[in-house]
Amino acid sequence: MKKMIRAALAIVTLIAGTVMTRSEDTALAASPNLIVNGSFEQDYAGWTLWKSVLKKNPDGSTPDKITVVQAGTWGIAANGERVSARGSKYDYCDKTYVAQSMNLSGLTFHSTEGQQLAIQLQDGLINHRMYQDVVIPAGTATLSWDMFWKSLGTSTPEQSLSINLRDPGTDAILRNVYTTVGLSDPTPSTWVYPRRGERSGPVNDAPMNHYSYDISAYSGRTVRLDVYLRNELGYFPSAFDNFQITSVARQVPTITWQAIPADVTYGTPLGAAQLNATSTVAGRFVYTPAAGTVLNAGNNQNLHVDFIPADTTAYTSASMDIRINVLKATPVINWSKNLNPITHGTPLTADQLNATSTVAGSFVYTPGPGAILDAGNNQIIHAVFTPTDTANYNTASADAKLNVVKSKVAAVAPIITRTLQTAPATTDAPGKTGAPGKTGAPGKTGAPGKTSASGKTSASGKTSVSAKAKP
Ligand SMILES: [Ca+2]
Q: Which end of the chain is more exposed for a tag (fewer CB within 10 A), N or C?
């Protein structure tokens, strides 16, 4: 009898599997389901089944699950199949046929994807799990499935069904996606989930409900999708089909930046006029170099921006580079356009050659310091400024006008010079050398009157000497 049932099951499975494969292909083409065999068309391929008794052994150790007394069945039902209370069902966890002991006359199950669905017929004090590890690529991710459950317990803690995302390494619960009662999960679902009895449909019918949950928070990692059934009471049937995790890859945001920013002059800090990238996606921009930076003069300098989207689940980061030209700055020269007049003969000094600049450097003037300009108005003095930082500054020049005026002091000066040159005539005054009482003895020469007359008529020294030689 058992062999016949097994054979019949095998045929059903084969037929169902054939039909389902086509359906799966269609589904895969339409939606990239990341779950292997999420609709149980290949029985439990891709899934790991597990069970364990709730209570510890008397010595505190966990009972070997292999030796656990059968208290529930991980079975597969065909669409529309009715599992009777006293029927036999193949248990894919223990790999044996198990007589069912539901307190109903039976349940009719409905697949929502393909021709098969998973059923769990709890009827004893035991935990059951069904899980598989799923690699979720970066992007947005959604977990959805169809489910039926029917608690026949009398108080909620004794029977519960939860669907979790777990860490494949530690098996720790990352996220409780769904639960019928509050397990001691760290992050209870925010779902308004049905309470006991709400899933009860028509007698002996197992209607499937659809569930969907955003699990984008776990994109980019591997998670363990886990169905966990806890039963400390009695009968607790459930059914599952069409598990799907779909992912939408992150998109690259579009960044727009003016391709060629206008040239700037050295000394201009980078600001909104240059660092003005935009995106159609919300996020923030990080520029290198940052705003406020003063670039050295030079062409084709790189400006880089990194864009960090606000929604890092749906969008990738992005970056962009553009070039900018920084022109040399021309130093500002501060110098009076009209210098204070000087008097002719006054050499140029720092009083006139006093241009300044806010930039370090040196001035060369033409004419330069010490030069004496001819008298005249509006004479041009030219200044050339050479900056110390020739990499970032141009040389610069400026002109100033200077009036050089004649003065009265300057006109008298030549006369003074000539007076000094005739000084001997002054010293050989006739009164001294030609004094008749001294050089000319009145009794001998008898011509004092000539000498005296000579000294009178001429102021020259020669005249006086001549008078001496005559005796
Ligand atoms: Ca199915």
A: N
pTM over 0.70: no
Residues in the chain, overall count: 471
CATH 2.60.120.260 fits 22-248, yes or no: yes
Taking the centre of ligand 1 as the mean of its atom positions, its distance from the CA of residue 20, in whole angstroms, is 8
CATH of domain 255-327: 2.60.40
Cα 40 to middle of ligand 1, angstroms: 5
Cβ atoms < 10 Å from Cβ of 443:
7
Peptide bond into 367 cis (omega under 30): yes
**Using 50, 70 and 90 to split pLDDT, how confident is the model at 264?**
very high
Among the four given CATH numbers 2.60.40, 1.10.3470, 2.40.30, 1.20.1250, the one describing domain 333-405 = 2.60.40
What is the whole-number distance in angstroms between the Cα of residue 23 and the centre of ligand 1?
9
Helices (H), 182-341: none
How much distance in Å is there from the Cα of 16 to the middle of ligand 1? 9
Contact partners, residue 447, CB within 8 Å, separation at least 6: 440, 470
The DSSP bridge pattern shows strands 106-109 and 205-206 to be parallel
Share of the chain above pLDDT 90, in %: 50
Distance 65 CA to ligand 1 centre (A): 28
Q: Would you kindly state where each structural domain of the chain is located, as residue ranges?
A: 22-248, 255-327, 333-405
Distance 199 CA to ligand 1 centre (A): 20
Least confident of 35-49, 325-339, 416-430: 416-430
Of residues 186 and 90, more confidence is placed in 90
Q: What distance separates the 2 farthest-apart alpha carbons in the chain? A: 198
Mean pLDDT of all residues belonging to the chain: 76
Chain segment 62-113, per-residue pLDDT in tens: 555 434 456 889 999 999 999 988 889 999 998 999 888 766 678 889 999 9
